[in-house]
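Model it.
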Amino acid sequence: MRVETDHTAVERRLLDEALRPGTIALDAGCGRTTRLRNYRDRIVRLVGIDADEEAGRANPYLDEFLPTDLDDPLPFEDASFDLVYANFVLEHLAHPDRAFTEWRRVLRPGGSLLLLTSNRASPLMAAADRLPERLRLSIKRRGAGAAERDVYPTRYLANTPRRLAQMAVAAGFEPISVECVGTLHRYGARVPGAARVLRTVERLLPVDRRSTIVAAYR
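Modeled.
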């Protein structure tokens, strides 16, 4: 059985299905860049929000940036967007249920939510979270290439497939696609042999225990 190991490939497929010409999109937790830049032929307006104002204002791909904490009410009218995109921000939220409610509120009828997040149901992700912070930061920097300034405290309050489904449905979302992707090999990219071992381990895990969740809702 083939195991999907590229979360960006799953994301591209879901974005291709969700985006229509003339889309107005919100990047929730945009940071310094966004993969939505690759879809500007279909996105006529791209708005970014992030609690890190310095990072958001450094993002060159946005039409507008507003410094906003995703745990707070969003500064937009109801039904403002055709797409809400949340790329690895859910694990950092103190009130993910509020975030889902706000994402639902600002989406237009027929609009889509696309999110990527870590899967706390993965035994390896859960074990890694118990490591000392300095060691976890070193692994992220060496493997996934994250800069220290862009690594934030994690809370993991909605980060299992079951909990994610509960929060999404409670906010009024209907799932389009929810996939668990084996991405742990990224963290072993610079250690000889480690990536191959991590790929093998994830193949042996149940599907819902793989390390990254890529989900689309309407």
